[in-house]
Amino acid sequence: MQVVSARNITEHNQAQEAFRIRENSRRKQSQSLVELARSKTFQEGNLNAVLREITETAARTLLVERVGVWLYNEERSKIECIDLYDVKTKEHTFGNWLLKTNCPAYFQALEEERTIAAHDARNDTRTQELSESYLSVLGITSLLDAPIWLEGRLVGVVCHEHIGESRQWTLEEETFAGSIADFVTMAIEASERNFVQEALRQSEAQFRAIFERSSIGIGLIDMKAQIVDTNLALCEILGYSREDLYGKRFTDYISIERGDLKLYKQLMLGIRTDLKTTSRDDLQPSKHQEQLVERHRIEMERRCRHQNGGLVWTHISVSVIPGSNGEPEFFLAMIEDITERKQTELKLRASQEAAEAASRAKSEFLATMSHELRTPLNAIMGLSQLLQQEIVGSLNEKQNEYVSCIYSSGEHLLALINDILDLSKVEAGKEELLLSPLPVSDLCNYVIWTVRDRALEKGLQLTHEIHLEADICIADERHIKQMLLNLLTNAIKFTPVGQVSLVVKKVPQGITFTVSDTGIGIDSNHFQFLFEPFKQLDSQLNRQYEGTGLGLALTRKLARLHGGDVTVTSTLGKGSQFTLFLPNPVHPRDEGANFTLSSSSSLSSSSSIIPTNKTILLVEEEENTATVLQDYLHTIGYQVKWIDNGNDFLKQVQNLQPDLVFFDFQLAEDVRILNLLNILRQEPSWEDLPIVMMTFSEPLEEEISKLPGNVNDYLVKPIRIVQLESILIRYLS
Question: Where is it localised (predicted)?
Fold first, then answer.
């Protein structure tokens, strides 16, 4: 009897087969990862090529239809596909994107999970938001997504997309997907590293090219003053080859002056001190830190010894280059050959000194000759008047004609001498203004009556108009009459037919006297010559109209001496319009008394007209300008606080309660400082605080328009005391 035993091993075989499949799959995944790690594409650093290889490997290993790499945009508002591999078409595409706001659950899952293994992607709570717009359209049933992390930050995701029946992702497949995401991270890091290295190589190459091709000599010098490297320009300046200069002492080739060694020591000490200070400072850059670059450089003009024995004038700028530890390691010397410029400067200086000497001699001569010139003219004009009155006997018609001619010629000559002497005084800074409050109506009546006969002789209509607000002006009576007469006389002289008018208006900054005519007009190309002494616009005018060209030059200089100006608008053949502007009138404490304001900036001139015991806030970046203003304002009795930046401007205004602010226009160009001014103007207690900008030139209209409502007035640097006193009178009276 035989006993047969039978056992069902189907399950065992199935388990063995599943184990074999898993082992093959694991082996295949490991093999793929090893191949990626050894890939030469990674070493080349081309991100697009690496991503193509990664997506193809992942699709082939996991047997999925599509694998894509998606990265966040800069705003982190969406992820964008930068590479998508389709197994069926064997093509790589890019460009799709997914908004974060449309899929909040999916993006939240990316942040929280190592992988998103969605077997039924259309119903999985993490991925169902993608169903309608993406999964259903492409037939995707299962998703295996692995987030991409870079330096602890989520930057994107690798998506493995399965099409067909739902797929159960194994733990090994999830681990593999995470490894693929890690490879993408390494690819991004390698690409960024290669980009930085390439940029560094290019930067070094560009620096070397600039170093070699610079027209300015450049030398690198160690702490022992030995030359480490030079460019071709420095070799040409000194006449030596690079090999000759290498290792030599830099100071052997330049002239040393007393104090140079001290400068170098201060330069070294300064950088060490600043390093300690910087280490204690906050992260926000301070004004002190911004000035470190300037403090780490010295500039000087020195003569260098050429190889042929000659001397070369150079401008040398020496800077300190710190090492990795912050300690000084090299000196960088920039050397420019300024021999030609120096020779030109010496010639110009000699010419300037000669011109100044001639100008002084002219002024002294004119001042000395004033009495001698006026005395005989006074006699000529006085005696001719006596003859006209027939005190010593009657004259016949011809004799009367001769005497009248003598008198008018003397009067013309005297006016010419007065103009020359006045112009000379103004240019020499010796003209004094006897300022007093003057009724505008009296001034206009006087000048109109004076030129009336000349206008009538030519048949011109002469009119004047005074606005009601323009009743008083502060000016030197003789000089304002002189200015108005010059403008009216010129208008009548150059107007053959028509009319001449004088209109006086009150403007916010002061008062204007506008003389208009319907005369020959002026070409705009000739405006630049109008106010130059002894110039008429062309030879034809010189022959047709008498004159020396002094009137307008003197008028503008006198106007500016008052703190005002003269401007012109004109159309050739239609007429001209000259406007004399004088600052706002201010009544002195004693209206019956005159007071003196000298163009030589006498301190006593302001004491009788400017109220003191006021506080002024001076915001000025440049120290020399601030020192001059601060010293002068202190001298005439003001309390002055100076700050060299606008950072604590509002705090100073609150503490000082100033009556006037002088503000450097360059500081106001900073948007932060401009915001401070706007904030100040929004405070009711400070909306009327006078703010005066200080500029290097007349501000353009577009520059002024940037400061609406902030600025009351401006001063042009270098600031003249006359203009400064005009501002003080205007706003602190």
Answer: Cell membrane
Domain 433-583 architecture: 2-Layer Sandwich (3.30)
Q: In terms of CATH architecture, what is 615-732? A: 3-Layer(aba) Sandwich (3.40)
Report whether 234 contacts 228 (CB < 8 A). Answer: no
> How far, in Å, CA of 595 to CA of 608, rounded?
7
**CA separation for the pair 406, 331 (Å, rounded):** 79
Residue 419 burial by Cβ neighbours in a 10 Å radius (0-12, 13-18, 19+): buried
Q: How many CA atoms lie within 13 A of 208 on its CB side?
A: 6
The answer to whether 65 and 162 have CB atoms below 8 angstroms apart is: yes
What are 161's two structure tokens?
């997309």
* Domain 18-195 CATH assignment equals 3.30.450.40: yes
Residue 726 vs residues 4, 509, 584, 676: alpha-carbon distances, Å: 130, 11, 9, 27
CA-CA-CA-CA dihedral for 525, 528, 530, 531, to nearest 10: 170
C-beta of residue 172 within 8 angstroms of C-beta of residue 22:
yes
Residues forming a β-bridge with 432: 598
pTM tops 0.70, yes or no: no
Q: Tens digit of pLDDT for each residue in 85-138?
A: 999 999 999 988 899 899 999 999 999 888 999 999 999 999 999 988 888 888
* Tens-digit pLDDT profile for residues 594-605: 333 333 333 333
* DSSP single-letter state for residue 585: P
- Annotation: CATH topology of 213-271+297-343: Beta-Lactamase (3.30.450)
For residues 712 and 69, give the distance between their C-alpha atoms in angstroms, rounded to a whole number. Answer: 61
